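#help-structures
NK: newbie question, is this the right format to request a structure? protein is Flagellar basal-body rod protein FlgF
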Amino acid sequence: MDRLIYTAMSGATQALEQQAVVANNLANTSTTGFKAQLATFRAVPMAFGDGSTIQDDTTRTFVLSSTPGADYTPGPIQQTGNPLDVAIQGPGWLSVLTPDGQEAYTRAGNLHVDENGQLVNASNMPVVGGGGPVSIPPGAQVTIGKDGTVTALMPGDPATTIALVDQLKLVNPAPGALTRGNDGLFHTSDGNPADADPAVVVTAGALEGSNVNPVSAMVSMITNARQFQMQTKMIESADQNEQSANKLLNFS
C-alpha cells in the first residue's frame, strides 16, 4: 500500500514545484527582456537491490520535476523613442556588472545614466563596455549605434564634433553555457566572462518584451492544478484502502 502512497506523494510534490515555475513565468509577462523558464517532468524508476541480479526488479516509478534551462526565443520588440533603450536583434546579450563585481548578461535594455555619470540598467548595475563600465559625459546627448557604439554630443556643439565614448560589450555564448541566477540575470557556467561578439546587433530606441505566452502559461497552471488534485485523490484512496484492510485483519 505504501507504494501507491509514496508514488502519488512524489507526483503531488513535483506538480507543486512545476506550478511555482509556471507562476513565476506568468508574473513576468510584462518584464522587459524576460526569458521563460522551462519545466518538465522525468520518471525515476525505483528498484530493490543494486540492479546487478535478475531479482532486482523495478517496484515503482517516482516523478521528478526538472528545469532544463530557459526559452531563449526572442520576445517582441517595441519602439520607445528613448535613445538609451536598446533591444537586441536575434541572439545576443548585454553585459552588466553585478554588485560583487562579476559579469552577468541580460536582454533587458532599459538603460539610463545614474548620478555618477555611468550607464546602468534598470537595477542600477553598470553596463560593461570595451574597457569596463561605460561613463557618459555630463549633459551629453547620447546615441547608441547598431554595433553597440556609444557616442556623445555636447550641448551647443555642431554635429561634426560628435565623440566616441565607448562600445557596449555584446556577447553571444552558447545557450548551454549559460545558467539563470537568483538575481534573474544569466551567468556563464564556468564563471568566466564571455567574449564580445561583433555579430550581435542592437536597435536603439526600442525594448524587447517578455517571451512568455500568457495563454500557454495559464493552460499549464490549470494542468498542474489538475495533476495535483489527481495525486491527492490517489493518496486519499490509498488511505481508505489501508483502513479497510486493517478492519478486515481485525475481524480475522
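mod (FA): yep, format's fine, and the C-alpha cells are attached above. The radius of gyration is 26 Å.
NK: thank you!
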